[in-house]
Amino acid sequence: xxxxxxxxxxxxxxxxxxxxxxxxxxxxxxxxxxxxxxxxxxxxxxxxxxxxxxxxxxxxxxxxxxxxxxxxxxxxxxxxxxxxxxxxxxxxxxxxxxxxxxxxxxxxxxxxxxxxxxxxxxxxxxxxxxxxxxxxxxxxxxxxxxxxxxxxxxxxxxxxxxxxxxxxxxxxxxxxxxxxxxxxxxxxxxxxxxxxxxxxxxxxxxxxxxxxxxxxxxxxxxxxxxxxxxxxxxxxxxxxxxxxxxxxxxxxxxxxxxxxxxxxxxxxxxxxxxxxxxxxxxxxxxxxxxxxxxxxxxxxxxxxxxxxxxxxxxxxxxxxxxxxxxxxxxxxxxxxxxxxxxxxxxxxxxxxxxxxxxxxxxxxx
Length: 365
Prior knowledge:
By secondary structure, the protein is of the alpha+beta class. It contains nine helices and 18 strands. The strands form four sheets. Strands 5, 6, 7, 10, 11, 15, 16 and 18 form an eight-stranded antiparallel sheet that branches. Strands 1-2-3-13-12 form a five-stranded mixed sheet. Strands 4-9-8 form a three-stranded antiparallel sheet, with helices on one face. The longest helix is centred in the middle third of the chain and has 34 residues, at 188-221.
């Protein structure tokens, strides 16, 4: 069993212990640790896992299919001032609700393996489709080094992912300290099928968010989102892949695919840079890279350590909803690792295509 590491800082003891437990689990052939790695329940975020006959839902996480999308914008940055930003926030909260829509809409979810779960989720997702979600999910307007404008969307499968994780974990086998596995030849088949549906739903959700945001930008600023340039990548999934001649089930939990020439998006925080990158296809990393900066502080610790004034200082030059600052402290730049250090640590894994700075950050609380 092989563990490969690309680190931006020494591993914390609890993170190292979690990785050791995962590496010793049945069927695990390869573990790749990304530079944004940080502690999470059972399997650390920033971990890539290759297995053979077992599937580990905890190595995908709850927000199955969560990922990033980006598209270029045709417009003049000068049109975005404080008054325009205020209008945009008002319009975005209506067009891209944070958590729930006031009226149901067609979520377009195909039937899942379990009919009762499918029926319940159809009802829940009808009011969540096209919504952003809380936590680290966001919609941003960004500017690259050449003055080009970009739309960025970070969201996932909403209620679908956690429901599928919990449903399938209940059907798995305990194989270690807190770890649950599904046999590929048994219940793992249904989990894999449901994961594919969740990933497709998450893609549709990001596109719906992008489409709604594009209408707002056109109406308020005259900006046009160029959907021909839209690209995205999921960072919570499991897929059948081949690396160094080995057929593996590759699980990524907070890690992006980075095959040779494959585009990915690596955000920092709501006040720091985002990078568009091109993968180098490094087999030892299971052709993966970091999915972001990674948390430096857990949410509770960040909320205690970071003041509203700290957040406002770190967001200088970025429009955000200041009335939400008390509830956004756990998303402040100081709650995240240095994205520059993360990018330096993964130079072997990706090539930087462009660096972007945030102009406006829209988040749910």
